[in-house]
Amino acid sequence: MSQRYPEILLDALHNRGTAFTTSERAELGLAGRLPDAVLTLDQQAARAYAQMRNQPDDLARNVYLEQLHDRNETLYYRLLTDHLAELLPVVYDPTVGEAIKRYSHEYRRPRGVYLSIDRPQDLRPALADLGLGPDDVDMLVVTDAEEILGIGDWGVNGVQISVGKLAVYTAAAGLHPGRCIPVVLDVGTDNETLLNDPLYLGVRHSRTRGKAYDDFVASYLATASELFPRALLHFEDFGPGNARRILEQYNGRYRIFNDDLQGTGAITLAAAMSALRVTGVPFKDQRVIVFGAGTAGVGIADQLVQAMVRDGLAQDEAVRRVWLVDKQGLLTDDMRDLRDYQRTYARPAAEARQWQGSGAGLLATVHQVHPTMLIGTSTAAGAFTRDVVTAMAEHVARPIIFPLSNPTERIEAMPADILAWTRGKALTASGIPVDPVELDGVRHVIGQANNALLYPGLGLGILVSRARRVTAGMLLAASEAVAAQAEVGTPGASLLPPVTNLRASSATVAIAVARAAMAEGVADASPDDLVQAVQDAMWQPTYPHLNGNGHRSTS
Ligand SMILES: NC(=O)C1=CN([C@@H]2O[C@H](COP(=O)(O)OP(=O)(O)OC[C@H]3O[C@@H](n4cnc5c(N)ncnc54)[C@H](O)[C@@H]3O)[C@@H](O)[C@H]2O)C=CC1
Ligand SMILES: CC(=O)C(=O)O
Ligand SMILES: [Mg+2]
What are the Malic enzyme N-terminal domain coordinates in residue numbering (predicted)? Predict the structure, then answer.
């Protein structure tokens, strides 16, 4: 123990600061190291909340909360769980985008594991020397930061997306913070601003690609799953070329989950299920335009196609009900620059030629297709213009419009505008949190179609069932469980459950996911009382009794 500053006060997982009791202080050698008063967790939380509120803006609040995170995790999570709807946008989307841009400048201390492509020999010791055994880890969130939210390549700064995603796992689904590891694969960056910034903290060269990159990812997967065989390997914000390729290559071998592809697909399917309960039009009769055919967009298209197939369509009939529009316009089969995963959905070139030539834009496609659903995963702010939205509303009574791009500066249209342009007819949900919209006497509550409303419960379900794989059936169970919690009976009702209720919602999702894992034979645990098992697995931000050595008697 350092005599100048006792170790326990530096150990955020165990530190209680002014809440250490007089006898604990004596036992731990803290006499004289803390002011005299002994506060309760409630009192500490009230003080920290007031300090947080006094910060001038959300970025400063984020920095304040991260410092608290580094000082006292119990108090940090107490604040987050008590004020989930208020603080999720501060520690996560959209403010986390700003925090990532500023990371190298606001840096205070390390959090997580930084794996440098220039030192592949360090990968194993970096994970092995954490002092965690094979049964001690439930979750690793890893990013290579090539496509952070919709703000692009942020190199090592992207570690904060792994930190933010894990904060949501703990706050929203009770994953134990000591059993979760944020990781960044620092493979370089193509962001010139970072490369020219003297304070940039990452590997200072362009992004490594090809075999060296692939070997690094393979080494990460093999090492992480060997050292922590129970952990879910969550992938976040990889670039479109790598995200799907890695998932497809390793899905059968490791317990791996791509949040942008699978999580976003599943939460959007949940929002769509709720919307169809309002319109009464089944999936097999939908016509879907996905604007922005990258990781998230095609992940969503895949989920919607599967829903149409479950509704009775053949696979190719379902695929023909989806139109992908990207930078080139409508994706058609004569285009040479399509990615593999886009090619499945490419329309016959002849179809678009009849309209206005290859690469018809979004508006032209809307005019021709008369879509029932329009999904935005493009990062193109404002792309759902009044013309686009009103053109869609001309042909369908209740257009379903989901502008899902994050953060706020990237959203395709604000829900308030979509509702105003369609005179309240649109059924909408957005990736960012937005306030309810009052229109013609109806209060429209906007559901947050962000994977954060689904992946925490999915992760908890995987943990409780010890599922070896993440299957399509488990993702579907998660979507259905989320959708079932939205009460869409009244005009203007949200298509998704509220963030205020996210902890309960995550528990419900976890039960559904665990049941699906058991039914599919991929679960290594089958608790008799699943409801209780899920409750027991959820960590609570409290100070448990300490044993004589200053350690928690329960964890
Ligand atoms: N709401 C949610 O839960 C989620 C939202 N997203 C958001 O979706 C957006 C895309 O994310 P990813 O799919 O991971 O990125 P990505 O880079 O894989 O895909 C983006 C796609 O949009 C296309 N695009 C870019 N500019 C365009 C334009 N002006 N017009 C048409 N297409 C354009 C790109 O060519 C690319 O195909 C981001 O803003 C991200 O925050 C992503 C995951 C989850
Ligand atoms: C929400 C999320 O995962 C994204 O925007 O990338
Ligand atoms: Mg993401």
Answer: 69-251
Among protein residues, the one with the nearest Cα to ligand 2's atom 2 is 149
How many whole angstroms separate alpha carbon 319 and alpha carbon 530? 37
User: pLDDT of 496-554, one tens digit each?
Assistant: 999 999 999 999 999 999 999 999 999 999 999 999 999 999 999 999 877 655 555 54
Task: Give the predicted TM-score (pTM) of the model.
Answer: 0.97
Q: Cβ neighbours of residue 289 under 8 Å, at least 6 residues apart?
A: 322, 323, 324, 325, 362, 365, 366, 369, 371, 373, 374, 375
pLDDT tens readout for residues 287-319: 999 999 999 999 999 999 999 999 999 999 999
Q: Are 473 and 481 in contact (CB under 8 A)?
A: no
**247: nearest Cα among 239, 235, 237:** 235
Three-state SS letters, 503-525: HHHHHHHHHHHHHHHHHCCCECC
Given the residues 165, 200, 220, 250, the one annotated as active site:
165
- Which among 491, 415, 398 is positioned nearest to 449, based on CA atoms? 415
Which residues, other chains included, contact 454 with Cβ-Cβ below 8 Å and sequence gap of 6+?
Answer: 263, 266, 267, 270, 478, 479, 482, 509
Ligand closest in space to the Cα of 235: 3
Are the C-beta atoms of 260 and 237 separated by less than 8 Å? yes
- What span, in angstroms and rounded, lies between the C-alpha atoms of 211 and 217? 10
